[in-house]
Automatic annotation (TrEMBL):
Residue span of region Disordered: 1-21, 78-103, 122-153
The species this protein was found in: Urochloa decumbens
Residue ranges occupied by any Atg6/beclin coiled-coil domain in the UniProt entry: 175-303
Name by which UniProt lists this protein: Beclin 1 protein
Protein family membership: Belongs to the beclin family.
Pfam families reported in the protein's UniProt record: APG6, APG6_N
Domain Atg6 BARA per the UniProt entry, residue ranges: 306-484
Xref: PANTHER family: BECLIN 1 (PTHR12768), BECLIN-1 (PTHR12768:SF4)
Length: 506
């Protein structure tokens, strides 16, 4: 067999491959193989075989019937030589070494013993009766002319079946190309060499064992040795039974431990689930708590700010506009000798209403501790004052410069009420042990209808002097307001009998 690239002379004189021939493929390298050299192989046949009948005149034909247990393929001397197109096989190191002392005898005939399945490949429909014979594979029994290829095709069919049987017998897929066959042959030679080395080692060991001397025990010694071995066997059996019993106990304990381990794993998994849930709830609670604490802290800051803030200080802003005193930006007073400074009575009345509301609020806060003898009635821009005899006077204008008795009395009683409240504040400082230098002291002394050196009465008085007296009165009212802010939190009273605690002024 050769690869297709090397094929030549396959049934024709022109060197082309016959397309009707079967194509074989190497089972190792998978290259395609074709049968070549038909003409040259026909020339190697004996003369009588080339001219005789295909069924009866081939020398070295198959010898055997269909019922034989063993079949023999008889090869001619010429066919036993190297086949056409097959290169000589290189000598292998694993080839068996022939002893030089043994004589070599030429074998007259070669016989290939085939098992019964292999013998059936040489049967044809004519040979089933036991009389017909086939030519060996590869032998062309007819002439090499293109018109007479039936013998060659039957030989190729036999060759194909031979490949199948060879594959089943050698456990190697056939056919193989020359290169793969050489590789396989070298591999099998190496295996044969290894087996021969093992055989030699076994033979050497057997010879050494046979050469060793040994003593034959007597019957008594044999019985003793046997009894000793039996006792050891019993001990070993007892040990094995004990070990098996211990193994059963350990296996049972292992099963219990596996069950407990599984339960423990379930408990651990449930524990971690609960732990994660608790951790999540704890984190949420801590975040909520921190948020509440932050709100509380902010609220406390606002509370402290509100505690330090008195609404009266923002509700009643006392200041001045030049020589005219103001409360909440309402001017209290008027000037007649200055141009473009004309204060209407509506603005003066609003200023008196704010002053009356402030003094009334502070007096009511300390009731009934403060003897509120003179009642002030804040009524927006129309305030009134009630004296100790329950006479009510209007504290608003307009009034005539030469006839303002009721308005003058209302302003005088207001000034008297302011003086009484200042005296009450001083007494409160004494009760709370406030040092004299920190106690309330009015910047302008009040004496009857006079504040400082100016009278508050409007009748027969100059506008400038009256305006200064009102300014001094507002200044005293501001000092009283500061004392009130520093000593109270200005919380509403819960009842007439409730007394408010005072804070020391530091």
């Amino acid at each position: 067999m050769k690869p297709p690239t090397a094929a030549a002379g396959g049934g024709g004189k022109g060197g082309a491959v016959d397309p009707s021939l079967p194509r074989f493929r190497c089972q190792e390298c998978r290259r395609a193989l074709v049968v070549v050299g038909v003409d040259s192989y026909a020339d190697r046949l004996p003369a009588h075989a080339a001219s005789g009948n295909h069924a009866s005149s081939v020398q070295g034909s198959v010898m055997g019937a269909s019922r034989l247990d063993n079949s023999y393929v008889v090869l001619s001397r010429q066919n036993r030589s190297q086949g056409p197109g097959i290169p000589p096989r290189p000598p292998s190191a694993a080839a068996p070494h022939t002893e030089p002392q043994q004589p070599t005898r030429a074998i007259e005939g070669s016989y290939i013993v085939l098992p019964p399945p292999a013998a059936s490949i040489y049967k044809t429909p004519a040979s089933e009766g036991g009389s017909a014979q086939l030519a060996p594979p590869g032998v062309n029994s007819s002439s090499p002319s293109p018109g007479n290829n039936s013998g060659f095709h039957s030989s190729v069919t036999v060759l194909k079946r031979a490949f199948e049987i060879a594959s089943s017998q050698t456990q190697v897929e056939q056919p193989l190309c020359l290169e793969c066959m050489r590789v396989l042959s070298d591999k099998m030679d190496k295996e044969i060499e290894d087996v021969n080395a093992d055989i030699k080692a076994y033979e050497t060991s057997l010879q050494r064992l046979e050469q060793e001397p040994y003593n034959i025990l007597s019957e008594t010694d044999f019985q003793k040795e046997k009894q000793k071995i039996e006792e050891e066997e019993k001990k070993l059996k007892a040990t094995i039974e004990e070990a098996e019993k211990l193994y059963s106990e350990v296996s049972s304990e292992m099963k219990d431990l596996e069950i407990k381990s599984k339960q423990f794993e379930e408990l651990e998994e449930r524990y971690w689930h609960e732990f994660n849930s608790f951790q999540f709830q704890l984190t949420s609670h801590q975040e909520e708590r921190d948020a509440v604490f932050a709100k509380i802290e902010v609220s406390q800051v606002h509370l402290e700010l509100l505690k330090r803030t008195n609404v009266l200080n923002d509700a009643f802003y006392i200041s001045h506009d030049g020589v005219i005193g103001t409360i909440n930006n309402f001017r209290l007073g008027r000037l007649s000798n200055v141009e473009n400074v004309q204060v209407e009575w509506d603005e003066i009345n609003a200023a008196w209403g704010q002053a009356a509301l402030l003094l009334h609020t502070m007096a009511q806060y300390f009731a009934p501790k403060f003897q509120y003898r003179i009642k002030i009635h804040p009524m927006g821009s129309y305030p009134r004052v009630t004296d100790i005899h329950n006479n009510t006077y209007e504290l608003f204008g307009p009034v005539n410069l030469f006839w303002s008795t009721r308005f003058d009395k209302a302003m005088t009683w207001f000034l008297t009420c302011l003086q009484e409240f200042a005296e009450f504040a001083i007494s409160m400082d004494k009760e709370n042990n406030v040092p004299p230098e920190k106690s309330l002291k009015l910047p302008y002394k009040i004496d009857g209808d006079k504040v400082g050196s100016h009278t508050i009465v409007l009748s027969f008085n100059k506008n400038e002097n009256w305006t200064k007296a009102l300014k001094y009165m507002l200044c005293n009212l501001k000092w009283v307001l500061y004392w009130f802010i520093g000593n109270t939190s200005f919380a509403p009273l819960s009842g007439p009998g409730h007394t408010q605690s005072l804070k020391n002024k530091s």
